[in-house]
C-alpha cells in the first residue's frame, strides 16, 4: 500500500468535515478542468483550420509540384519525365506554364495570373466542385477556351454565355527594341470563356488556358515549362514519394507539396497555435494557484496529524509526498474531466457543427476541428508540469514547518 497516497486520498475524500479548504480544492479542480478543456478545443480548432486550408488548396493544386531550383523556367527532358513515371506512384503529370498577364474584355482590363495547362489537369477533376457557371473545357472543335476565377469574372463583367466577345490576354515581348507604348511590344491571344470557378479569395485572379496557346503567348520553348504538377495515386505516402523523387531528380529541381507552396500561411497558423498554447498554459497556471493556497491551508490544519506521523517515525519526504499526492489528486481529476469534456465537445462539433463560422462565402458552415493525439499529450504534460510545480512548494514548506514544530514540542 502506498501510504502517502492513501493519506492524501483520505484528506481529499473525507466526508466528516467539509471546510473552506475543500471549497478551494474544488475551485482548483474546476479551474484546471476548464483550462484543460480550453486547450484541447482551441488546439483542435487550429488543426481543423490547417486541414481546411489543405482541403481548399487540394481543389486547385496538385499533390506534388516539380519546380526549377533557380529561375522561372524548368527545362523538361525525356529522362526527367521517365524518372517520374518509373515510380509507378504518379497517376497524372500536368505540364504547366504560369505567369502574369493583362486580361481585357470589352472595355475592362485587369492583371491576372495566367496558368497554361494541358488536358490532364481536367482529368484530375479538381475543379468539378468549384465550377459555378459554364463548362470545363479548354479546346473544342478548333476553338480555344479559358476558365476564369470568380474575381476575374466580376472585375471584367464576363459572361460565359457570350460566345461573340473574346477574352484577350496580352503578354510583353522580350525584345528590347520595342517600347511599351507600341502595339507590337505585346503578344496577344484570344479565348472564349467556357466557365467560371470559385475556390477561395487567394485563387480569385486566375485564368486557366490551353498550354500550347500560352506557350506561344509567353515565348517559352517546346521543352520549357514553369512546373510539372503530379497527381499521386490514392494511399501513396506523399512525404516518402517527395523525398524519393528529390533524390532521383537532383538539385536542379525542387519537389514541393501543398504545404511548401503556401509556407507563410501554415507558418502563421503554427505560430498562432504556439502563442495560444502558451497563453492557455498560463491560464492553467493561474487556476492552479488555488492548489497552492489549498495545500498551504491544509498543512496548517493538519499540522497535528503530521506531528503524530513524525512521532511515529515518518520522514520529511513521506510528509512531502502526502501533500504532493493531494495536489495531484486535484490536478488529475480536473485534468481528466477537462480532457474528456474537450474531446466530447470536439466530436460534437465535428458531427453537428454547433458553432458557425458566420461567413457566407466559406466552403464550410461550422468551425473545423481535428483531434490529434500529439495535442492531447502536450495538454496532459502541461497540466502535469504546472500542477507539480505549484504543489511542490507548499508540500516542501509543510514538511519543513511541521518537523520544526515537532522538534520544538
TrEMBL record:
Query: The organism sits in which domain of life?
Result: Bacteria
InterPro entries noted in UniProt: ABC3_permease_C (IPR003838), Lipoprotein-release_system (IPR051447), MacB_PCD (IPR025857)
GO:BP terms for this protein? Answer: lipoprotein localization to outer membrane
Keywords (A to Z) from UniProt: Cell membrane, Membrane, Transmembrane, Transmembrane helix
Question: What Pfam families does this protein's entry cite?
Answer: FtsX, MacB_PCD
Q: How does it sit in the membrane?
A: Multi-pass membrane protein
GO CC list: plasma membrane protein complex
Q: Which residues form the MacB-like periplasmic core domain?
A: 25-247
Tagged with keyword Cell membrane:
yes
Query: Which residue intervals define the domain ABC3 transporter permease C-terminal in the entry?
Result: 279-399
Q: Write out the transmembrane intervals.
A: 20-46, 274-300, 322-348, 376-395
- Major location, coarse class? membrane
Q: Where in the cell is it found?
A: Cell membrane
Q: Which family does it belong to?
A: Belongs to the ABC-4 integral membrane protein family. LolC/E subfamily.
Q: What's the name of the protein? A: FtsX-like permease family protein
Instruction: Name its species.
Output: Larkinella terrae
